[in-house]
Design a protein that fits this description.
single chain, 539 residues, mainly alpha
Length: 539
């Protein structure tokens, strides 16, 4: 019989060895998924100043509580005033704190409100496209990251050098079809049970071990995954509820820090404790030889092989001509992936990416435009998924945002020197983005009286021209660019003949220069571009 104190003690011991990695994994998971929604309150906290004149802002649209109120008003044809009272204000805060704007549910409600309020028009098509993209993102990417987070914490218990990139392990294995199907079924069943309220709470705990089971064995069948989760939680649902309830004091304290304490301690503490609980329930189930125990087939999570055992296994593996034959994955204090039950296709096994590689002049020119275009696509997709509108975040006509390219170049020139120190590099990326965004917005407002973005009302904003949330998101993008995208794109670029490389850079520079000169000589067109009513609109 497991005890809460024992599980928490083991988690605290794991935190001593893997603290920053655990914090980073929970932080990435919170940024990329709908998990840990209360932790992100300090990033998106918005308090509008009703005394000031309205100005363009970067609001993500209506809050989740407003979306719910709009839906009720559309159905009942009566105004909803429940959020006007003090109790309603508290309810409003709870809804917006513990739900996520990235949720498919709120994307559907937003589209439904638009269709009910207006006749079917082009904006409705964008909203429906946003719902579809939100659905695809949640089940093809978000759920896989959640499983990857579980995998990281399962390995980090005994392997103290577990890499942060473990949260993407299903993508590296090229094995996502079965986990996607099982997690989709889990979401559908959970939603149906949530309609009964009490049944939803019970099933939430009954299904809670499915991501852990998939993290251990992604090839398990749907029926076996649900069956094993049910068996593991038999007689443990109430005890797991009490386990989570024991963290209430930490969550309450975290609210006073606007979620910062969640990032720094509570989230990795809870995630690690859940992983310890899974391993305890799994161990008891395997020892009792209960039906289906063979599906728990990753003994290396429990029993760390000795160095001699690893050397023998590696020698035998080399003779087997496996996908890792040419690339050594024998690293101390890391899970031996070449012994995992599922092996990736040989084409998916690549040499480690060297983020400290040197970039020549042509590479820097190409990467400037690559990251500028990537930023334009990224922000357009984010606002399409979140708000159901296309949003031209750039101040030029073409599909690029130079702010991204400029920051990318600075990362390659300045921050790359700290590539082996991820945390200082991340902080530097945030600082660089904040400075450049502030200066750019100040210049647009001073020179052309154009307020491209107004962050007034957001927590930790600087004169409404930049704020902490944008800096954090760009810091994450900067890490992706510095550690993965830039080396990959540079390899692809150098795969082209040299004369093609030169022609491509000249063409991109010519188009960009023409676009920039046109924008400088026609500021009135920029002002019109920023007005609502265009295909790409400001919000």
């Amino acid at each position: 019989m497991w005890k809460r104190k024992v599980l928490k003690k083991k988690t605290r011991q794991a935190l001593k060895f893997n603290y920053w990695r655990m914090v980073a994994v929970c932080f990435l998971t919170a940024m990329l998924t709908t998990a840990y929604t209360s932790s992100t309150i300090f990033i998106n906290l918005y308090e509008p100043d009703h005394t000031s004149s309205p100005a363009p802002d970067v609001s993500t649209g209506a809050s989740n509580s407003e979306i719910i109120a709009d839906t009720v008003e559309q159905i009942s044809d009566e105004p909803v005033q429940v959020f006007d009272s003090p109790a309603g204000s508290a309810l409003d805060l709870l809804i917006n704190t513990y739900t996520s704007g990235k949720s498919v549910f709120f994307s559907i409600l937003r589209a439904l409100n638009n269709i009910l309020a207006h006749t079917f028009e082009l904006s409705s098509v964008f909203l429906m496209a946003g719902v579809l993209l939100a659905f695809l993102y949640q089940f093809l990417i978000e759920n896989m990251i959640v499983i990857g987070e579980r995998r990281f914490f399962l390995e980090a218990r005994n392997y103290h050098q577990t890499r942060i990139s473990k949260i993407f392990f299903l993508f590296k294995l090229r094995f996502i079809r079965n986990p996607v199907w099982i997690m989709l079924c889990r979401s559908i069943y959970q939603f149906l049970w949530d309609l009964t309220i009490v049944g939803g709470i019970i099933k939430h705990y009954e299904y809670s071990m499915i991501p852990f089971i998939l993290a251990e064995n992604p090839s398990i069948s749907r029926s076996d995954a649900f069956h094993l989760s049910k068996q593991l939680m038999h007689g443990n649902k109430w005890r797991m509820f009490l386990l989570h309830l024991s963290f209430f004091g930490w969550h309450l304290l975290s609210l006073f820090t606007l979620g910062i304490l969640d990032f720094l301690f509570v989230n990795p503490y809870m995630a690690g404790t859940d992983a310890e609980l899974y391993m305890e329930l799994r161990r008891n189930y395997v020892l009792s030889r209960s039906p289906g125990y063979e599906a728990f087939n990753d003994r290396l999570l429990e029993q760390v092989p000795s160095e001699d055992e690893l050397l023998i296994s590696k020698a035998l593996y080399d003779d087997s001509e496996g996908p890792y034959t040419k690339i050594s994955y024998f690293a101390p204090e890391q899970y031996p992936v070449f012994l995992y039950s599922i092996q990736p296709p040989e084409r998916a096994v690549k040499a480690p990416i060297h983020a400290d590689k040197k970039y020549g002049f042509l590479s820097c020119v190409f990467l400037f435009f690559a990251f500028s275009i990537f930023g334009w696509i990224f922000e357009s997709l984010v606002h399409l998924i979140r708000d159901g509108v296309f949003l031209n975040r750039g101040f030029l006509i073409g599909p690029w945002i130079p702010l991204y390219g400029l920051c990318g170049l600075i990362l390659l020139i300045v921050v790359q020197k700290f590539v082996h120190k991820p945390i200082p590099a991340f902080i530097m990326m945030m600082a660089i983005y904040s400075v450049i965004e502030y200066l750019l917005n100040w210049f647009l407002e001073y020179e052309w009286d154009i307020v491209q973005t107004d962050y007034t009302g957001y927590l930790l904003n600087l004169n409404g021209k930049t704020f902490i949330g944008g800096a954090i998101f760009f810091g994450l993008l900067g890490c992706a660019f510095l550690y993965y995208l830039a080396p990959k794109w540079d390899d692809l670029f150098h795969g082209l003949p040299e004369y093609i490389q030169i022609l491509l850079c000249v063409l991109l520079c010519t188009l960009f220069a023409a676009d920039f000169v046109y924008a400088l000589t026609h500021p009135e067109l920029l002002s019109e571009l920023f007005k609502p009513g265009f295909l790409f609109t400001k919000v």
